[in-house]
Recover the amino acids of this structure.
């Protein structure tokens, strides 16, 4: 009887040990959380890629550090222009330079910044896009394309005192967030400016002369620095295409330096 009891106890002990092993194995599996409950693998942060045009660069022994943003940028100094010798060559941002477009080169402004350029000598202004680097000449702050220089009356003199104001930058989506208001050449009314005078008498005399041929001629004062220019403008059209045609007509028949403005 004792032998039988001993054998039963041994079997019972074996069964118990087997059950414990199975339970331990089962518990081991349950201890591993399902994949959905695992925390995501943390990847190392990707370093921001700085465009080549935003990296410091050295010209003639001097290092320039492009600005991360153009917002609030204002500068006054001398402007020059560049034309045929560079026409068709690559610009700093990879475009082909078109001397007839309205663009400009600047040493530190971000590429594709739109700037208002005001000629402090005659009151003319235009909006140009930065797509190149330069000018690398002492005391010059901006190099205008031939097209921009023509609108500002800089082609003949070669140099002019200007004020430049950052208007906005083209972002990755192609939008242009405006920092400052600027003429929107998609909506009328449009006028063509044919002259600017410091003496209001000269401006009104020119206006009277033009009124013999044109119906709507206006004189508008415009303060630039410490000077007031009296701009003489002729109404062109509310339609952009027609206004451009009138601008071309005014360039041929009124003033070669005539240019379109939007209000």
């Amino acid at each position: 009887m004792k032998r039988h009891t001993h054998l039963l106890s041994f079997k019972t002990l074996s069964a118990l040990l087997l059950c414990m092993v199975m339970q331990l194995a089962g518990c081991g599996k349950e201890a591993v959380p399902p994949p959905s409950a695992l925390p995501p693998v943390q990847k190392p942060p990707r370093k921001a890629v700085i465009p080549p045009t935003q990296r410091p660069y050295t010209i003639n022994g001097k290092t320039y550090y492009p600005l991360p943003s153009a917002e609030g940028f204002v500068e006054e100094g001398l402007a020059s222009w560049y034309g045929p010798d560079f026409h068709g060559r690559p610009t700093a941002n990879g475009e082909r330079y078109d001397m007839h477009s309205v663009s400009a080169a600047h040493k530190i402004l971000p590429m594709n910044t739109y700037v208002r350029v005001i000629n402090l000598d005659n009151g003319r202004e235009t909006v140009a896009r930065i797509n190149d680097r330069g000018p690398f000449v002492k005391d010059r702050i901006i190099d205008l394309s031939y097209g921009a220089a023509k609108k500002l009356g800089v082609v003949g003199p070669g140099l002019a005192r200007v004020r430049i104001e950052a208007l906005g930058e083209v972002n990755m989506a192609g939008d242009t967030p405006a920092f400052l208001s600027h003429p929107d050449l998609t909506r009328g009314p449009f006028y063509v400016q044919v002259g600017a005078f410091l003496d209001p008498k000269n401006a009104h005399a020119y206006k009277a002369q033009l009124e013999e041929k044109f119906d709507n001629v206006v004189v508008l004062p415009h303060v630039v620095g410490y000077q007031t220019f009296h701009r003489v403008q002729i109404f062109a059209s509310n339609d952009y295409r027609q206004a451009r045609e009138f601008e071309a007509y005014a360039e041929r028949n009124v003033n070669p330096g005539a240019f379109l403005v939007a209000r």
